[in-house]
Write a structure and sequence with these properties.
Blueprint lengths: L13 H7 L4 H7 L1 E5 L1 H8 L2 E2 L2 E2 L1 E6 L1 H6 L1 H9 L3 E4 L2 H7 L8 E6 L5 H6 L4 E5 L5 H14 L3 E5 L8 H7 L8 E5 L1 H10 L3 E5 L5 E2 H7 L6 E5 L8 H4 L4 E4 L11 H18 L10
Parallel strand pairs: 4-5, 7-8, 7-12, 8-9, 10-12, 10-13, 11-13
Antiparallel strand pairs: 1-6, 2-3, 4-6
Helix pairs in contact: 3-5, 8-9, 8-13
Length: about 290
């Protein structure tokens, strides 16, 4: 079992330097490693394996955090990760947050090939097309996980899945369901259609109303929701790829819904329709 370092690791250590540089996308891509910060993300990382290989590689923890979250440290060691005790200054140096929680994990990339997503014949998928804000990307991933989606696809025009803000915003959901990255939107739509999935583009200017679609009973089958950019939505060429362009009805005086809220409404609408027809997995199932 890899040992806990008997002394606090130095800020000049090569391990610290290597971890710190993962805050930058080019180094993440080169090393195929990313940072998971905080107890929830590290706990999920420690329990995650891809093809039998543990996802968590290293864990940096303050003495206080190591004592408070002794179960997480034990899980990290059980997963084969090397655990380093570090000062608060070292953790702050590695961390990308203003107020670090004392635990920072180094994890292997865990994205899934798009072909594997299709082979699993998913019934509910979130496709992030042109989503640039990492916080929104992570939050939509969390919503997809909560709604029982089987996969998330990030197109090549979207933000980096492993951006620290996206990882934090997913609150551990990144480790729960397959995520394909770097897929051209045309390829994503084509592949999902070939797999028998209906493509719905979420857009405030859509010609279909979500409530009406639910009332008509059209949403019980396999569905992929395509979500666009936070500021300008989906471009016309992307909307044209969809089987339907659907708007979330605004019953009050609000101008619109933000991306993550709209995504939650759409995904849960599909999840409810699919559960009613015996389709989608439910997170309440044992």
């Amino acid at each position: 079992m890899p040992p806990v370092s008997p002394e606090l690791i130095s800020a000049r250590s090569g391990r610290v330097v290597a971890a710190r540089r993962l805050g930058k996308r080019n180094f993440r891509g080169k090393d195929r490693l990313f940072l998971a910060e905080g107890p929830q993300a590290v706990r999920e990382a420690a329990g995650h394996r891809a093809d039998g290989v543990p996802t968590l590689v290293e864990l940096f923890a303050t003495v206080e955090a190591a004592e408070r979250y002794a179960d997480i440290v034990a899980a990290a060691r059980e997963a084969g990760a090397r655990v380093h005790l570090a000062s608060e200054d070292v953790i702050a140096d590695i961390s990308t947050t203003v107020t670090p929680q004392g635990l920072v994990g180094v994890c292997r990339f865990l994205d899934t090939p798009f072909e594997d997503v299709l082979a699993a014949r998913p019934r509910l998928v979130a496709v992030l097309a042109h989503v640039r804000d990492p916080g929104n990307a992570g939050t939509v991933l969390r919503c997809a996980d909560a709604a029982g989606a089987e996969a998330v696809v990030l197109t090549d025009a979207s933000v980096d899945l492993y951006n620290p803000k996206a990882v934090r915003a997913s609150v551990g959901s990144l480790f729960h369901l397959p995520v394909a990255v770097g897929v051209p939107v045309e390829r994503a739509v084509e592949g999902l259609k070939d797999a028998g999935v209906r493509i719905l583009a979420a857009d405030g200017a859509g010609d279909r109303d979500l409530d009406e679609e639910l009332d008509k009973g059209t949403m019980g089958g396999p569905t992929a929701w395509v979500f666009g950019n936070e500021a300008w939505g989906l471009p016309e060429e992307t909307r044209a790829l969809a089987d339907a362009v659907v708007r979330v009805p605004i019953h009050g005086k609000a101008e619109s819904l933000n991306l993550a809220t709209a995504a939650a409404v759409c995904l849960y609408a599909s999840a409810r329709a699919q559960r009613a027809s015996g389709g989608c997995r439910s997170v309440t199932q044992s």
